[in-house]
Amino acid sequence: MRRIWGRTNSINVMKVLWGCAELGIAYERIDAGGAFGGLKTPEYLAKNPNALIPVLEEDGFVLWESNAILRYLGATAGAGASVWPDDPRTRAIADQWMDWQQTTGQAALGPAFVQMYRTPPEKRDEAVIARSLARSAETFAILEAHLTNHAFVAGAGFTLGDIPIGCLVYRYLHMPIERPDFPALAAYHQRLLARPGYAAHVAVGVS
Whole-angstrom Cα distance, residue 204 to residue 68? Predict the structure, then answer.
């Protein structure tokens, strides 16, 4: 039995659901977090003491942190699949961008997203939004430059490294904000739309 805990509009849950789609992994998903709550219960904290989503449960094994879950799924179900390449350098580049999403991309865009989508209008801080969007423009310019010369983050082929990046790119391109013209990001988004897992779990609106 494989269970994934988390609500579908969480960017980190989206990653895991998309990863399962790419690898053909069956699972049961359980709503948790946001309006569903449940993250502060003793039972859930025993799974993830950070009180965050997603959590993967698999035959008594429990794992949290979305990118770690993606790597685990790749390691256990991705043998021979192009999305989890055998070449260590290609996989390292995929890992590099997977981590960049968390440490750099999400760090830049996250504050604006939280203010716009998770904060009541009367409590929003426009200065926080402005700083976040300015930083995002600089940050996504790095990805734009990379994708100008590469179809996907690790080269010519799609890998699991594209999942965190693709989730963040969708959010950035579909938030009602002013942004620079990033043609490579727009083309990348179009390539990702051809993947059923992206269309089903990510390209569903920002909320």
Answer: 24
Relative to beta strand 2-5, strand 28-30 is parallel
Sequence ranges of the domains in the chain: 2-77, 88-201
Q: Which parts of 30-125 fold into alpha helices (H)?
A: 42-47, 66-77, 88-100, 106-117
> So what's the architecture of 88-201 in CATH?
Up-down Bundle (1.20)
What is the pTM (predicted TM-score) of this model? 0.96
Query: Which amino acid makes up residue 101?
Result: Q
- Is the confidence at residue 81, as pLDDT, over 90? no
3-state DSSP helix/strand/coil % of the chain, to nearest 5: 60, 10, 35
Residue (of 185, 117, 181, 176) closest to 147 by Cα position = 185
2-77 placed in CATH 3.30.750.24: no
- Edge-first strand order for the sheet with 55-58 is 28-30, 2-5, 55-58, 61-64
Instruction: Please give the angle made by the CA atoms of 35, 135 and 7, to the nearest 5 degrees.
Output: 15
